[in-house]
Amino acid sequence: MKRDDGLLTKKFDKLLIVNRGEIAVRVLRACHELGIKTVAVYSDADRNAPHVRFADEAYHIGPPPARESYLRVDKLLDVAKRSGAQAVHPGYGFLAERAEFAQACVDAGLVFVGPSARAIKIMGDKQEARETVKAAGVPIVPGTEPGLNDEDMQAAADKMGYPVLVKAVAGGGGKGMRPVHQAADLPDAIAAARREALAAFGDDVVYLEKMITDARHIEIQLLADAHGNTIFLGERECSLQRRHQKLIEEAPSFVVDEDLRQRMGAVAVAAAKAVNYVNAGTIEFLLDKDKNFYFLEMNTRLQVEHPVTELVTGIDIAQEQLRIARGRRLRFEQKDVQIRGWAIECRINAEDPYNNYLPSTGVISTMRLPTGPGVRVDTGVFRGYEITPYYDSMISKLICYGETRGEAVLRMRRALEEYNITGVKTNIPFHQHMMESHRFLTGNFNTKFVEDKFSMSDRAADQEMEAAVLATLVAHHQSMQASQKIVSVGGGEQIRSAWKWHNRWERLRR
What we know:
The chain is of the alpha+beta class.
C-alpha cells in the first residue's frame, strides 16, 4: 500500500539492515523471531562483528569511515538489489533520520521500516516541527523565528529574558547549541553555534529558545500504524545526560504520576498525528519543576533506550515496527498498555570517567557479561573485538528490571559488579557511583545534574582512601608474616610468634 505521503507498506520476507553494532543485532533477532530473512552490511572494521555472523547474508560496503560505507546510499541500495531484500531497516544514527534516504528506498520499491520521508523532513527541521505541533495544540518552549540577524536576536533575547539557548535549525545531539546566561555572551554564542551547525549539518541557520531551568527530560514512546491508530507506551526519564548525550534512562519516571502521564501521552499522540506519523517514534519533552511540559523534538526512529519501555510494557517495539511496515494493524489499543514494574538502562561506553570521559580504543581482552534474574544486555561486540575511533563508543546497554525502583537499582548494582571487561576503559565506575548517589536514589536530579552536581573525584577520593587502607593492611600483614618466620635461636629453638619474639627481646634487654 502506498499512501499519499509516499509511505510504502507491504508484506516482505527479506530485510536489509543498514547499520551495525548492538542495534543491528537487535533488529536481526526481531526478524528471526518473525521468520524474516536478514541481510547485513559491514565495513572493513566490522568484518568479524556479531551482526555479520548472525545475519543470513552479509555484504562488504567499504572502509571504516562511515561516509565511505554506512552513509553511502548508492552502495546500500545496490546491496538491496543484489540480495533481493524487499525492505530496509535503518536502526538509529547514520541514515535513520535522513528523509532523502527514506524516499530513495521507496523510489527503489523498498519498504522503509520507519515513517514517511515527509514526516522525517518536518520533524527533522526544528522550526518547522515547532510550528507544526504548535498548530496541533502542543505546548512549545517560547522562542524566535529562524534566520534573524544578530541585532534582532539580541532584542528578542532581552525581551524573553536570560538564560536562553541558541539552537541550530538542523541541529541534534547538542550540536549547534549554546546556552547563554547574559547578554554580553550572546554574539559569540551565535557565531559559535553557526560555525558548528554549518560543519555538522551544512546549514548555519539558528534561532533562540527560552532556557527552561531545573528541567527534566521526559519522553513518550509511540507506535502508529498506517490505518490511523496511534498509541503511547508510557514515558521514559532521560534526564541523566552529559553534553546532551544520555547516560542512564529509566521507565517509568520518578516524577510522573498517572494524570501527568495521560496528559503528556495525549499531547504526544496529537503531535504525531499532526504529521500523519507511522511506525515507532518518540516525542521528547522538557518538564519544569512546576510540572509544565514543552515539546522539545521528535525522534523518528527506534531509540537506544527502547528496552526500558519494552520491559515495563511487555511490548517488543522492534517487532511491532516490522509488523507496521508490513501493513498490519496495531495489535494493541491504548487501554491494553499497562505499566508494570521498573526498568533502568545504563549505557556502557568505552571511555574513561576519571579522565573527562576521554574515549578509549583498543582490543577487548576480557568480557564477562552479567546475567541472572531481571538482567538484559544488548551488545554488538565480543572478547577480541577492537573498539576503533570510527564509530560510537557504546559497548553495550545494560538493562535491569524489578517490581519496584528499589529492586531495579539493587539489580543494577549487582549486574555492574558482575560486569567484567578489560582491554579498554569503560564508564562502569560512573554508573556504580551513580547507583550509590543519594540524589539519584531519591530522584532529585535534572538535565544538568551530571555536569553541575556530580563528580567522579568523590569516588576517586574514596577509592584512593580505600586503596591506602588496603595497602596499609597488606603491609601490616606482610610484616606480621615476616615476624612469624621460623627463627633459630641458640640450640635450634624456634619462635613462631611475633609476641614471643618481642617478649624474648624484652627479657634480653633487662
